[in-house]
Amino acid sequence: MKIGICVFPGSNCDYDTYYIVKDILQEDAELIDYTSKDLDRFDAVILPGGFSFGDYLRPGALASKTPLAEAIVNFASKGRYVLGICNGFQILTELKLLPGALLPNENDKFICKRVNLSVENISTAFTRKIEDKEVITLPIAHHDGRFYAPQDILEEIEANNQVVFRYQGENPNGSLNAIAGICNKSGNVVGMMPHPERISEDILGGLDGLKIWHSLIA
Amino acid sequence: MKKKVLIMPKEGILDPQGRALKDVLNEAGFDVKDVRIGKVIEIESDSLENLEKMVKDYIINPLIEDYEVL
Predict the structure, then answer these.
(1) Binary contact (A106, B16; C-beta < 8 A)
(2) Which of A27, A199, B41, B58 pairs as cysteine with A206 (C-beta 3.0–4.6 A)?
(3) Nearest of A60, A42, A68, A51 to residue A14 by alpha carbon
């Protein structure tokens, strides 16, 4: 499988993600510059975490106006797989590939900790190897992860089974309905605040992140 | 043409920065009911029409923000 990892100015989980795809999964990985317009050679693209364009204006706002972001919209419309992690999730909502928005955490603090997540939709390309309602533990590291959508959109997200991950137990950032990750209606685009690439090796304290990656390459 | 654009979080959306400032002001002895923090962007461009287009299509997120050209 050929997997592209997007690199925007200020992305900082790009190499971690590249390493997981290339060295741990042993798949064909390639970094993609934010000025690129052609994604035809890829089966999947990942928008990694970080602070694209310094989070200026709003997290993900400026990255969503780049040539690469435009190409991702086209790529997703063909049913190919797109995963946004943390800042990547913020970019996907700014791009309107995913509904809602990610606002500053309720306590206005940067939160860096492990959280338990219930996996609530196992039909997506990134969760198909996980058990329904399985609880997995992944780290979060963000200041703007409070998922928000107006009531009507939130009801639509729930009704369409678009909630992929929900915080279990404590809701760390005040997200509506404890939402940690969602997908688009067809399930080929997923955005999530937690970082699976940071917990995919024993030496880093866990393997739950692999469940996401193994779903992708299954 | 130089204009200022005022951008505010939509009514009903929690603004943690505003809440923190409100708490500090109240602790200092003032009687503050609400504080909301937005931003002002100054843009020098050719026309009001283009400015509106920029603000709507590139600058604000209408899901969470309201704007006003000052």
Answers:
(1) yes
(2) A199
(3) A51
The DSSP letter of residue A187 is S
Could you confirm whether domain A2-217 is CATH 3.40.1010.20? no
| Best A103, A144, A156, A171 residue to mutate vs chain B (most B CBs within 10 Å) | A103
Closest CA to B7 of B44, B58, B47: B58
Residue B30 lies in domain: 2-69
Altogether, the residues listed in chain A come to a count of 218
- Residue B45: CATH number of its domain: 3.30.1280.10
Long-range contacts of A109-114 (CB under 8 A, 24+ apart): A109/A143, A110/A141, A110/A142, A110/A143, A111/A140, A111/A141, A111/A142, A111/A143, A111/A145, A111/A172, A111/A173, A112/A139, A112/A140, A112/A141, A113/A139, A113/A140, A113/A172, A114/A138, A114/A139, A114/A140, A114/A199
Asked if B64 and A57 come within 8 Å (Cβ–Cβ), the reply is: no
Q: Quote the ipTM score.
A: 0.91
In the structure encoding, which two tokens stand for residue A156, read together?
A: 């639509």
Question: Residue for token digits 């990547």?
Answer: A88
What pLDDT score was predicted for residue A35?
97
A156 in reach of chain B (CB within 8 A): no
3-state class (DSSP) for residue A173: coil
For the stretch A10-32, pLDDT in tens is 999 999 999 999 999 999 999 99
- Asked if A56 reaches chain B (Cβ–Cβ under 8 Å), the answer is no
